[in-house]
Amino acid sequence: MSGEMSIEHRYASGYAALVGRLLNDTRHGWSIGTFGAVGEFVRDDDEPATRTITTSAQCLYTARAAIRINLDVEPRMLAYDTLSGDGESWGHSLAFCLPIPDKARRGVIQSLGHDTDAVRDEDRDAAIFDLGAGIGHVQFCLRTRDARLIDTLLALQNQDVFGPHGGALMADVLRAQPHRVLISPAGRIEVFAAIPPPDGESPEGPHTHLLPKLIQSGRTHDANAPIPRGFQPVLMFNPRSPWRDALGRRVPFEPELDADFRKLLDRHGLPGEARIRAGVEAAVASGTRPDAFAWPTTRRGRAVARLTLRRIAQRSPGDLVAAWRAHHDHAEEE
């Protein structure tokens, strides 16, 4: 499928149409997870893919991974961008959020039987186990037919995946190479690609992360994401940065990618952040000196203002915006 479609949607046909348009665009990716336990779905523009659509879900799978997005759950959507540490660029995100359940915490290893909800028919008779690494709405699971790994996981039921037997379990996981399945009320992501060794790098394309130190913090998401208090991301749409190619390599700024995301940002961004962006835009346009502007007092507010300056610098470079950036766009908070 071509990756030329705009990621913006005016909601003429509702949530299902938005999901369909975003899934069609191969430039961008998706993820489900919590802080340190995450699965990512991406695909190449020319990669063979199978698409299924029903009234309750939209699915897409390749030889490397699968994604299902449920249409009977409509989370609150929040678009935001984040600063990059190079002093010039930024990234984009659209979070699909639900209220955090009461007493949200990590669980323990549990057998979930056969994965009858698998995206592909051929995976529905395999055994699936919740590792207890997710928090709240999100489950991080392993799916396998490997008898030895199944016996190991059954023996470890009701134990912490990072407990005393965790090292032996992970060695068995590397041997058996099970599918990793991330599940939330918004859908699921299944990764079939190989798990690299501990000293290896994550493969290009779909992959998972299971990072004990981050998981044990008990957080549902990164602290830099402006998720409203009491909410948890249950699905993430990850638009490609206008500064990076599909492999994350730096490229010249691509304004059309940023323009596409700005439409989502205008519709689904936080109102307070929109006011900050508008205030900085108006001040620079009117020739206000940077030291005469009431700079935001919160860390996130300052990040939004700095992001706005970086956008202005790309669109309309000049001495005034350079003076604003020299005065305000410092790296000490990155």
Tags for this entry?
six-stranded antiparallel beta sheet; eight-stranded antiparallel beta sheet; 334 residues; elongated; 14 strands; alpha+beta
Describe this structure in words.
The protein is α+β, with helices and mostly antiparallel strands and 334 residues long. Helix content is 27%, strand content 25%. The chain has helices at 14-24, 147-155, 166-176, 212-215, 255-268, 271-285, 299-315, 319-328; strands at residues 29-34, 37-41, 50-53, 57-61, 65-70, 76-83, 90-99, 110-114, 127-130, 139-144, 179-184, 187-191, 207-210, 231-238. The strands form 2 sheets. Strands 3-4-5-12-11-10-9-8 form an 8-stranded antiparallel beta sheet. Helix 6 packs across helix 7 (299-315). The longest helix has 17 residues, at 299-315.
Mean pLDDT: 91
- What is the approximate shape? elongated
H-E order:
HEEEEEEEEEEHHEEEHEHHHH
Taking all Cα atoms into account, the compactness measure Rg is 21 Å
By DSSP, the count of extended strands is 14
What is the percentage of strand-forming residues? Answer: 15-25%
For the biggest sheet, the summary is: 8 strands, antiparallel
Number of helices: 8
Sheet with most strands: strand arrangement = 3-4-5-12-11-10-9-8
| Poorly predicted residue ranges | 1-12
Distance between the termini: 37 Å
Helix content: 25-40%
